[in-house]
Amino acid sequence: MRSLLFISLFLSLRSALAAAIVFKTRSIDVWRPRNYTAVSDARTASAIQEKCHRLQWDRLSVKAPDVTDQYTLAQLGRMAANAYALPGAPNWWNLDPIWSSSFPIGWENPIDGFRGHVFVNPDNTTVVLSIKGTTLNGPTSKADKLNDNLMFSCCCARVDFTWVFRTVCDCYAKHSRCDNTCLSESLVKDSLFYNTGLDLIGNITTLFPDSDIWLVGHSLGGALASLLGTTYGLPAVAFESPGERLASTRLDIPIPPEIITTGNYSLAPVTHIYHTADPIPQGTCTGRASPCAQAGYALETRCHLGTSIVYDTVGRLKWSVDIRTHPIKEVINRILEQEIWWEFGRQVPRARAEEDCADCDQWEFGDYLPPAENTTFVVQKILE
Ligand SMILES: *[C@@H]1O[C@H](CO)[C@@H](O)[C@H](O)[C@H]1NC(C)=O
Ligand SMILES: *[C@@H]1O[C@H](CO)[C@@H](O)[C@H](O)[C@H]1NC(C)=O
Ligand SMILES: *[C@@H]1O[C@H](CO)[C@@H](O)[C@H](O)[C@H]1NC(C)=O
Ligand SMILES: *[C@@H]1O[C@H](CO)[C@@H](O)[C@H](O)[C@H]1NC(C)=O
Ligand SMILES: *[C@@H]1O[C@H](CO)[C@@H](O)[C@H](O)[C@H]1NC(C)=O
Fold first, then answer.
1. Which residues contact 324 (CB under 8 A, 6 or more apart)?
2. Under DSSP, is residue 88 helix (H, G, I), strand (E, B) or coil?
3. 11: Cβ–Cβ under 8 A, 6 or more apart, which residues?
4. CA-to-CA distance for 69 and 176, rounded, in angstroms?
5. Is the minimum distance from the CB of 266 to ligand 4 under 6 angstroms?
6. Helix (H, G, I), strand (E, B) or coil at 176
7. Superkingdom of this entry's organism (predicted)?
8. Which of 28, 74, 298, 305 has its Cα between 20 and 30 A from that of 379?
């Protein structure tokens, strides 16, 4: 009887505490280009002229989501999940009332494939763009797969150097060598979601010129959030994303010169969230027998920008490494919204830089091919 009383007292106390749980923010320092128009101009120029981005960058302190707080992370996870759905759909996740004002983006255009959702708080001071990841079977699948294979494979999605099937570009130069110039050219094409994202964020900043803008996403969507956040100096949180660090150097995208000169990738305003049973962010869903290659994906990279919060589901929860743990639903239900003390009394493990991380070290990259291959043509063939 008495213990029952204690339990009910405990439960009511806990729900009282839960009611006080709120979305938390903190400030972080970012590098931000002074002029957003100049960013897209530099982007277009870099495809044609030399890689010269004469952009001016300012160092400033901005408001960002507090990624050390479990509740905040779970809300961001739900936002990332909602990029796959429309409000009211069975796979739509409820959010705090402060995010009730929202609108979808890119859903009217089935081909383009860049989709997401924008959440705005009541006084318009914070705007969150959530970017959709890969859909296996849907109108965006073809464009999704092309983007995955261009961004996260070592060399045009040759699953390994003996691979003879369909690739996304023709930069393979025999003997496990891959042509750098050819790669950069393939990656500047318009079919790349990154370019759509630049345009879209330009539009959002026009609509909300004084707001804090944050980017979130799951898988491919997280990688895009990260790359766009790094270019524009916007805080980004990415769930279960394949390594996008290689793409950040190859895409020839504007990123703060500080990152390039110091080689310190943790200067990017990005936090990655992933767990050890998901092979995709760790770049281990590879090899011809892997489920990724079987489905036509070459997700080989594993190094990320920014810092990473890694939940050790294999060590702590004895999960097996399995691609079925990749969906955002699994991450929210089984990790972010569980009461598990992951690390030294913390529910959110510490965010760490991925130091000494290397991608694709079995490949050699250099200038091996004659220039001016028409890569647009190859990319288009795949999309058709
Ligand atoms: C931003 O850059 C564009 C060129 O890329 C230039 O035309 C424009 O004047 C610049 N705006 C400001 C405010 O400097
Ligand atoms: C927030 O922004 C939207 C879109 O620009 C605008 O219609 C609305 O009036 C703004 N609300 C506030 C409180 O500023
Ligand atoms: C951005 O706005 C311009 C002008 O309204 C529009 O043409 C373009 O399609 C928009 N871009 C995206 C990605 O929504
Ligand atoms: C990289 O930058 C971060 C953030 O400023 C800093 O804390 C860290 O010490 C730097 N790492 C290296 C290796 O310089
Ligand atoms: C490349 O191929 C595309 C599609 O066939 C064509 O439209 C374009 O003009 C070609 N570009 C060059 C530089 O040959």
1. 330
2. coil
3. none
4. 44
5. yes
6. coil
7. Eukaryota
8. 305
The one-letter code for the residue type at 367 is D
- Contact in structure between 21 and 71 (CB atoms under 8 Å): yes
Most confident range, picked from 7-11, 267-271, 370-374: 267-271
Point out which residues pair with 317 in neighbouring strands.
none
- Which residue from 220, 262, 216 is spatially nearest to 236, judged by alpha carbons? 216
Instruction: Point out the ligand 1 atom lying closest to the alpha carbon of residue 36.
Output: 1
Please, are residues 39 and 198 in contact by the beta-carbon 8 Å criterion?
Answer: yes
- How open is the CA angle 244-225-105, to the nearest 5 degrees? 135
Domains assigned to the chain: 24-152+190-293+300-356 (3.40.50)
End-to-end CA distance of the chain: 70
Place of tokens 């739900």: 78
Contact 249, 215 (CB under 8 A): no
| Sequence-separated (6 or more) residues with CB below 8 Å from residue 2 | none
Amino acid letter, 18: A
Q: Which positions ≥6 away from 211 have C-beta within 8 Å?
A: 120, 124, 125, 126, 127
pLDDT in tens, 175-189: 666 766 666 666 555
Atom in ligand 1 nearest the alpha carbon of residue 40: 5
Known catalytic residue at 308: no
Going by alpha carbons, the residue nearest to atom 4 of ligand 3 is: 203
Joined tokens for residue 20:
């006080």
Which one is catalytic: 184, 219, 266, 308?
Answer: 219
**DSSP β-ladder status, 236-239 and 352-353:** unpaired
Report the alpha-carbon distance of residue 23 to residue 242 in Å, rounded: 27
Task: Report the C-alpha dihedral over residues 45, 48, 52, 56, rounded to 10 degrees.
Answer: 10
Amino acid at 289: A
Q: What is the pTM of this model?
A: 0.84
